[in-house]
Amino acid sequence: MMESREMSRLYLQSARNVVGVVADHAVKSLNLSIASTLSSFEYALQLARAKSGREVMELSAAHYLNQLKVMRCSHDCHLDFICKTATDVARPFRPHIVVSTCVIL
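Above: the chain sequence. Below: its structure as tokens.
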């Protein structure tokens, strides 16, 4: 069995890994939010300048597609966060994993 110092070191390393993943996720999420907000302001400005109903519909369709792309990026960002968190938490413990086995004779 591992000593408590070794376990403490592994837990600390695991926590450091998670802090890095959380910080990266926060930056990505913030950048997505900023891009989405700027896109919405740009869309509002374009709507204000629209001269016809057809132009409004075209702008709305383009903005809708852009928002779908932002939602997809956000989804990918969250999925990446979940996967990285799980793998980075477990990384320090991998060399010490003991797998129980059962042999039936």
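Residues 4-96 form one domain.
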